[in-house]
Amino acid sequence: MPLVVEIVSGHGVEYTVDEVSRVVVRRREADFDPGSEIAICPHHAPLLMQVQACRMRITRGGTAFERELPAGVLEVHRDRVTVAIT
Length: 86
Fold this sequence. Notes:
Elements: E1 3-9, E2 12-26, E3 37-40, E4 47-51, E5 54-60, E6 63-69, E7 72-77, E8 80-85
Parallel strand pairs: 1-8
Antiparallel strand pairs: 1-2, 2-3, 2-5, 4-7, 5-6, 7-8
């Protein structure tokens, strides 16, 4: 089952895309200023982490594209990737 990616704010859902085969974001780390990237694919284990502002890379249907992502908190639950932004 492909991923569904959502970016949500206090105003509701800001962005959503389905049929995603991979998402790459930059996580926020206290000891490593630029942070490191993490790839999330279908059937990923549950995850909750802080992400820093970055270009989120999304692969859908064999095509990769980027979207600006503000800092926030990312959750992976089942095949849904939700980023809550501030």
